[in-house]
Specification:
Helix content is about 35%, strand content about 10%. The protein is α/β, with parallel strands linked by helices. The model has no long low-confidence stretch (mean pLDDT about 95). Helix 1 crosses helix 2, helix 1 crosses helix 3 and helix 3 crosses helix 4. It has a single domain, classed as 5'-nuclease (Rossmann fold, 3-Layer(aba) Sandwich). The chain has a 5-stranded parallel beta sheet. It contains 5 helices and 5 strands, in the order E-H-H-E-H-H-E-H-E-E.
Length: about 140
């Protein structure tokens, strides 16, 4: 099983001050490192959030965060999944069930994980799965 790392998981991996840092590192060392993925949305989300000057433990601008991301991508279990699906033109998702703007990105990442026969690894305990067909089976709560 390959796990698509959500933005919150990537942040916790690289930020030693993150409240979930130890928990995520334990999961990654035990399970995630063997087969994991990133995609443009999760990579860019990491760069944008941690590279923001107001992020509490920012190492600097996005160019500095990119070095940490490159290290993660350089691990043996990594695979890059391009953004290759559409929520409005996919058998995996029902866009009519997108009831809130806040569900769009999570639903997309969940559908991308399903399309690649993987799971979305996240810390988000309230992530809605109903937009994606069999979405619960594609979700890995850390």
């Amino acid at each position: 099983m390959r796990y698509l790392l959500d933005v919150n998981v990537l942040i916790a991996l690289i930020d030693p001050a993150h409240v979930q840092h130890e928990h995520v590192h334990e999961w990654f060392g035990r399970v995630g490192h063997k087969a994991f993925a990133t995609c443009p949305i999760t990579e860019n989300g990491l760069l944008r959030i941690v590279g923001h000057p107001k992020y509490p433990n920012s190492p600097g601008p996005p160019s500095m965060v990119a070095a940490a991301l490159a290290a993660i991508r350089g691990l043996g279990g990594h695979k890059f999944w391009p953004d290759s699906i559409s929520l409005v033109e996919s058998d995996l998702a029902d866009a009519a069930l997108l009831s809130s703007h806040s569900r769009v990105t999570d639903s997309y990442l969940l559908a991308l994980a399903r399309a690649n026969k993987g799971k979305l690894a996240t810390l988000d305990q309230k992530l809605a799965t109903e937009v994606v067909a069999d979405g619960k089976s594609a979700l890995a709560l850390i």
